[in-house]
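Risk mitigation, structural track. In case the binding assays with heme C fail to produce interpretable data, a predicted complex structure has been prepared as a fallback.
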Amino acid sequence: MTARNATILRALLACAAAGAAMPLAGCRGDRSDKPPRQFFPDMDDQPRWKPQSETPFYADGRTMRQPVANTVPFGVSTVISDAAWAEPFMTKRADFLKESPEIYEGTDELGEFVTSIPIPVNMQVLRRGQERFNIYCATCHGVNGEGANPPGNEHPEGTGSPVGRRWSIPVPTFHNPMYLPGGERGQDGYIFTVARKGVRTMPSYGHALDPHDAWAVVAYIRALQTSHLGTIQDVPEPERAGLGQPPAPPPAAPPAPTPAPTEGKQ
Ligand code: HEC
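Fallback model:
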């Protein structure tokens, strides 16, 4: 075979190979209106109903069925347990079912904001609330809850927390009587809801504060308000000196005991 013939043969073979590859290439990525080839149909084709559509089959006319009673919503957590080992990362059964609107929504059965914290408050809860408050709320509302640039306290360079004073509108102080218990917006359930869902220009913190943490924050805000309203008289005597306050005047001498009347019977 001459060199020229070999070249022609190679060219012909290349053409044949390209021709053979074309139909193969055509199988992949080709657009077609025809149904795709099904080599193993398995359960590809089955009768089904589309969600939210109508059917004459069921009496209520809906294709979608109500979940059976007591069905537990799924997808919140991978661990549901009341066991001690699961403590750090568990979702307690009660948290899963969210049966109490007071605890999980901050509202009673009529939808009104609850006026007292529906979980037991102790020192541990307050400390947790302090920690969460300092992380998530103090940035704008200040570590003492004093707000930033509140009306009547404006300052050319801004007052209050660093983020809060750059906010487009004044960040309210929690010491406004409006936010105290009994105030217009002072319900515990309202503050809980604002913390979890945000309000007007305030972002929500529900992604960061689960309901228990949000209640802890409410409890801590109450502690801040109480201490703001407190006077030196509320500070225990041994700790007043450290605050640079004069010690309290000694308590008035108790009235001299009146002698018990003597029975005059003789
Ligand atoms: C990024 C800044 C920012 C952070 C962080 C922030 N707030 Fe606010 N908050 C605001 C602003 C701004 C307003 C006023 C919103 C308005 O009136 O538009 C506000 C208002 C409020 C109000 C009053 C709502 C009303 O109706 O008067 C409460 C209560 C409150 N915040 C609680 C919290 C709590 C609790 C946290 C922490 C979980 C928190 N905020 C974190 C900016 C913030």
